[in-house]
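Dear H.,

Thanks for agreeing to be a second pair of eyes. The structure we're designing against is below in token form, covering all 333 positions.
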């Protein structure tokens, strides 16, 4: 039996009837296998062209809708809240930030429970950690705190309770790299603050709690005081030549500012130092410390009055007695 195809009487490229699957499949009684016949490709193309599904343009993918619009009603450009039934604005589906703000702060039926992230302190960023470490290091240096205290367990726990991101430096870093960098920063600040101003260099020789000989070099400029250096002289004798050379070295280090005066003790050795340095620095005034002068005046006065000297000795004995007896010393204080 021959294959029957639908006849096309109209020149319209879209046929009124599309061949069915039964018309395209030959009868098995004719001895023809169904695999021999293939559907006409032209009719399939024509059928797709006439199908409204294929005639529509592809849908454009626009901006994703904000989920906040699911909680409001938009009617006649009036946006009202579904929860509290209050009007948010009358501008239609615009100003989404106002809608978000309503649910965040104004809606009386908004959720009041905190988010789980609000229960934990925010992690410090690298910038804040660096700023914290810098201020913490300056606290160590300005108060004279021992560097090994940074590893104290109580301090670590206290800072961890505030924020887990508070990272502390080690005692070795405080004594080496951080100390050098902080000294460099402070020196730059000092240079800018005292540049062009008259200042005084104070030399103070003393003995620390360990019995070591120390010389402090302090710079005073107006109301500001700067500790320049602390020199442990060790077994070196504090002779006039040594002190003069060391003072000259410090003056050359801080030559960016003008030194108007140099203050030392009033000993005979220091007076010889003044004479030695006066030739090299004729515009600098070298003089003794007024506190040391008062101390020497009192000593000379006590030495000339026997009764006052005896009184001084008795006062010293009384002080030593109280210091040796802990209970009496505590009551006296």
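And this is the sequence the design step returned. I haven't edited it by hand at all.
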């Amino acid at each position: 039996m021959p294959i029957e195809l639908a006849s096309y009487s109209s020149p319209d490229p879209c046929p009124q009837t599309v061949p069915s699957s039964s018309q395209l499949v030959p009868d098995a009684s004719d001895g023809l296998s169904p695999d021999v016949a293939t559907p006409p490709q032209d009719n399939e193309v024509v059928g797709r062209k006439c199908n409204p599904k294929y005639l529509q343009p592809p849908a454009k993918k626009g901006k994703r809708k904000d989920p906040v619009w699911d909680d409001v009603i938009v009617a006649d450009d009036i946006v009202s809240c579904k929860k509290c039934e209050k009007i948010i604005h009358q501008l239609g589906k615009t100003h989404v930030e106002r809608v978000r703000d309503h649910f965040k702060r104004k809606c009386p039926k908004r959720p009041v429970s905190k988010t789980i992230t609000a229960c934990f302190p925010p992690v410090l960023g690298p910038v804040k950690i660096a700023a914290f470490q810098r201020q913490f290091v300056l606290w160590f240096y300005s108060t004279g705190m021992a560097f090994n205290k940074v590893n104290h367990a109580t301090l670590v726990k206290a800072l961890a309770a505030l924020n887990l991101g508070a990272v502390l430096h080690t005692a070795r870093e405080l004594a080496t790299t951080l100390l050098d960098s902080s000294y460099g920063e402070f020196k730059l600040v000092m240079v800018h603050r005292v540049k062009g101003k008259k200042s005084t260099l104070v030399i103070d020789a003393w003995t620390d709690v360990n019995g070591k000989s120390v010389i402090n070099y302090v710079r005073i400029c107006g109301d500001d005081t700067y500790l320049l250096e602390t020199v442990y002289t060790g077994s070196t004798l504090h002779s006039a030549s040594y002190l003069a050379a060391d003072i000259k070295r410090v003056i050359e280090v801080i030559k960016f500012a003008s030194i108007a005066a140099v203050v030392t003790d009033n000993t005979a050795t220091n007076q010889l130092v003044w004479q030695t340095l006066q030739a090299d620095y004729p515009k600098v005034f070298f003089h003794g410390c007024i506190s040391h002068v008062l101390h020497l005046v009192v000593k000379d006065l006590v030495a000339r009055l026997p009764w006052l000297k005896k009184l001084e000795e008795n006062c010293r004995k009384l002080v030593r007695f109280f210091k040796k007896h802990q209970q009496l010393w505590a009551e006296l204080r």
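Two observations from my side: Residues 69-106 form one domain. The radius of gyration is 47 Å.

Warmly,
E.
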